[in-house]
Automatic annotation (TrEMBL):
Pfam families: PNP_UDP_1. Its EC number is 3.2.2.9. Residues 8-232 form the Nucleoside phosphorylase domain. It comes from the Bacteria. PANTHER family: 5'-METHYLTHIOADENOSINE/S-ADENOSYLHOMOCYSTEINE NUCLEOSIDASE, 5'-METHYLTHIOADENOSINE_S-ADENOSYLHOMOCYSTEINE NUCLEOSIDASE. SUPFAM superfamilies: Purine and uridine phosphorylases. One of its GO terms (molecular function) is adenosylhomocysteine nucleosidase activity. Pathway: Amino-acid biosynthesis; L-methionine biosynthesis via salvage pathway; S-methyl-5-thio-alpha-D-ribose 1-phosphate from S-methyl-5'-thioadenosine (hydrolase route): step 1/2. This is adenosylhomocysteine nucleosidase. Keywords: Amino-acid biosynthesis, Glycosidase, Hydrolase, Methionine biosynthesis.
Amino acid sequence: MTNKTQLKIGLIIADNMEFKPFAEYCAKIEKMREGINRKNEFITVCLCKGERTIELTGVKCGVGKVNAAMSASFQIANGANLILNSGLSGGIANVRRGDIVAGTQYMEADFDLTAMGMELARKPDQEYLYDADPLLLEAVKKACPDIVCGRLGTGDFFLNNEEKKNLYKNKFDLTAFDMETGAIASVCYKCDVPFLSIRKVSDDAAENSPEDYREMNDKAEASLIEVVSRLLDEIFVQDAFWK
């Protein structure tokens, strides 16, 4: 069997300020192209080490589950071998503001058919809890030993309610909450494409979280793209990704 020499990796990012550090990272790389695809801004760069090449395409998809799922679908249709996601999240349990979390599992916590007698988040006749790709998860842990690992929950709303936060903590054992990861994970699961999300905790998902989120988001810090960059370095040297 011949090993691959090229990987196509899709990076899904929700909003302008989260995308800005990625754009600045790409501007330092010679082989770069950018544009609009299906009304989403994207940047593609080629990274090379030895005979191996990673074509990395970052897409600014917009906030929320529909936007994220559509972006994942388009990236996979365009040949992405792996899907990554980065962004900010509200902390639920065992994390502090500023921590960076690698998702071990993903779920749509707001999926609600309880009126039909089903448990919250359960989907009829299909999976509802999606695992991170084990190779990607181990690679990011090796690249960033201090990273926090935990389950991520997703909903189409900004979580700033202590009661709902405690519900998700106690019922689902969530580490953090966001508006995209569960939807991306669902698409990747159905398409058999490895997925990993890396999120930075911007707030505590309670009453004061909007102000804390805005403060961190407005800084457009480079910490997440730095973790992604270290993960890519690890992907380059691990033969398992190239088989």
